[in-house]
Design goal:
The protein is α+β, with helices and mostly antiparallel strands. It has helices at residues 12-27, 41-47, 68-81, and strands at 2-7, 31-36, 53-56, 59-63. The protein has a single domain (2-81), classed as Glutaredoxin (3-Layer(aba) Sandwich). Helix content is 45%, strand content 26%. It has a four-stranded mixed sheet with strand order 2-1-3-4, covered by helices on one side. The longest helix is centred in the first third of the chain and has 16 residues, at 12-27.
C-alpha cells in the first residue's frame, strides 16, 4: 500500500504529521511517498489550504490536523482487507 503525504516547507503541522507517519510506518506495512506542493503550482492550488494531506489510493484520508488514532485505525482496516 502506498501512502501519499502532501507537505510543504516551514509547516509545523506537516512536521507533526511526518512524525506520526514515521511511528505508523513501524506498525503498518506501507510505502510513504512525500510530495512537496511548493514544487508544483497545480498541487499548491489543489492542496494549499489543506496541507498536510494524507492520501491512500487516490482518496484523501486526512488533512490539516492529522489524528494518529483515526489514521492508525484506517491503516489497520486497510491492511486487514489486503
Amino acid at each position: 500500500m502506498e501512502v501519499v503525504f502532501y507537505t510543504r516547507d516551514q509547516c509545523m503541522l506537516c512536521k507533526e504529521a511526518k512524525q506520526l507517519l514515521t511511528l505508523l510506518k513501524e506498525e503498518h506495512d506501507f510505502q510513504l511517498l512525500e510530495i512537496n506542493i511548493n514544487e508544483s503550482d497545480e498541487l499548491t492550488e489543489a492542496y494549499g489550504l489543506m496541507i498536510p494531506v494524507i492520501e491512500v489510493e487516490k482518496e484523501i484520508i486526512q488533512y490539516g490536523q492529522i489524528d494518529y488514532f483515526s489514521l492508525n485505525h484506517y491503516l489497520q482496516q486497510k491492511n486487514k482487507s489486503s
